[in-house]
Design brief:
single chain, 465 residues, alpha+beta, four-stranded antiparallel β-sheet
Length: 465
């Protein structure tokens, strides 16, 4: 196991989970009344197989942790974990093959479609067996872990420690925190983890990965001339007369594509839990409203964004390593692993594992307007673009929406420029350019959630201007 230390953002990682309030993954969402018992059983088997494969080999979690705190009880599901081949099979039916999830070098875990057998593994997209994430741990922070942290003045340190401690009590801000990191002026000034987690243990990003996807889009506009305002974001929609030809990549960035995605009608469940492909299930979705007229938080929009990037790259060999070589490994996010479907389309609306320190690195990249160690990674001004309110906004008094980032300016007294990736169960990397601070919080929250705006505001209040 590699040893790593990082510190450029304001990242604090502390975790304390009350024994009686340990959160587990719920049953798959989006189940429709017409779904058969077999569909539901298959989805539950998939949930289990994906969590075990990704947790063990992408997140560096122990099986005991996954079974005790992440997954619901197995019940009648029979689980086989092949450590040598890194394959998880979960049997759910007397007549259907088990649900199978396979770990691949660099690419992490991929779910085979319902009904597939192990014979299908040889057809999965792969990268070269000689390709591996670089070992950057001994490099200086933030690319590596060396000299990551600094000591704050005693009064400031005590004030921040009180805020961080409160993030783990389960009451002050709610939720169940496993990690917090505070980064100020490029160095870690606070970091704490739950005993089950740690510096090199990753967990599901959930929808925070959407912000990673937005970064992939930004890179593609520079390197592959992806035009986010071109009508017909996907080649499949450019046939004359197809109303989806109005959809731009910018609509997808803003969650205003107009594609259907409410309740059980979203393609998400079939892709996440049945092994359907982005090409076969999301690309073929139909319009429910005119593009650009309604905000609808629809995870398949992010999957379609990544397919637009794939088509811009126009080389599947390059595309399979694109997230890693163009972003993650360049900035030291070597323990961030994002998954694709079995057809080679990165999902990146979730299905990504990452550590708290990698979240901090990501926030630092945006604090620097996309420049890392003198190299421009993102287009100039891209950080401002993703943090600009989109034309169509969600209803209510909560945070606003930019381009696959949530905007928190004014929430709980936060500065006007505060924005963050957001993921289910409480995954955040609050970026505050005016304070040169990033606040990372990772959790396994229950439905009540975590008050990230108040926590970030309190952390800022503890820090000297």
């Amino acid at each position: 196991m590699r040893n790593r230390v990082a510190g450029i953002l304001f990242t604090v990682v502390f975790v304390a989970v009350p024994a009686m309030a340990q959160q587990r993954l719920a049953a798959p969402v989006g189940v429709r009344p017409e779904d058969t018992k077999s569909y539901v059983a298959s989805a539950n088997a998939s949930l289990r197989a994906v969590a075990l494969c990704s947790g063990l080999w992408s997140g560096n979690q122990t099986r005991e942790l996954i079974e005790r705190r992440i997954l619901p009880p197995a019940g009648d599901l029979k689980t086989d974990v092949d450590e040598a081949r890194r394959i998880v099979q979960v049997t759910y039916s007397d007549t259907m093959p088990p649900r199978i999830v396979v770990w691949r070098n660099v690419l992490g875990c991929v779910q085979l479609p319902a009904g597939a057998t192990l014979d299908a593994v040889k057809y999965l997209p792969q990268v070269s067996p000689r390709l591996h994430a670089p070992d950057l741990d001994d490099r200086p922070w933030p690319t590596g872990d060396r000299d990551a942290a600094i000591e704050l003045p005693s009064a400031e340190k005590r004030a921040l420690s009180r805020v961080v401690d409160a993030a783990f009590d389960g009451n002050t801000y709610g939720g169940i925190t496993w990690g917090v990191i505070g980064v100020k002026g490029g160095k870690i000034v606070a970091e704490r983890y739950d005993p089950d987690f740690g510096v090199h243990v990753g967990h599901q990003t959930h929808s925070a990965a959407k912000s990673f996807a937005a970064s992939m889009v930004g890179i593609a506009t520079r390197k592959y001339r992806l035009d986010i305002q071109r009508p017909g974001a996907l080649e499949e929609w450019r046939r004359a007369g197809d109303p989806r030809g109005r959809i731009t990549a910018e609509h997808l960035l803003h969650m205003s594509s107009g594609l259907y995605g409410e309740g059980g009608g979203s393609p998400q469940s079939d892709i996440y839990f049945q092994g359907a492909t982005v090409e076969g299930r999301a690309v073929t979705n139909h319009l429910d409203s005119l593009p650009g007229t309604r905000f609808l938080y629809n995870p398949p929009d992010t999957m379609l964004l990544m397919r637009a990037v794939r088509q811009a790259v126009h080389d599947d060999g390059k595309y399979l390593v694109y997230p890693f070589q163009e972003l993650f490994w360049k900035i030291g996010m070597t323990r961030t692993i994002t998954s694709s479907d079995w057809n080679g389309d990165f999902l990146m609306s979730g299905q990504t594992y990452s550590t708290a320190r990698d979240f901090a690195r990501f926030g630092l990249l945006y604090l620097a307007d996309g420049v890392w160690n003198g190299e421009r990674i993102l287009p100039e001004g891209w950080a401002n673009y993703v943090a600009t309110p989109s034309p169509v906004q969600p209803t209510g008094d909560g945070p606003r929406y930019g381009a696959q980032f949530w905007l928190y300016g004014g929430q709980a007294g936060l500065p006007a420029d505060a924005y963050s990736p957001n993921g289910g169960q409480g995954q955040y990397a609050m970026i505050v350019p005016s304070r040169n601070v990033v606040v990372v919080r990772r959790g396994i929250d229950e439905a009540s959630g975590f008050k990230i705006a108040q926590f970030a505001a309190d952390a800022l209040g503890a820090l000297a201007p």
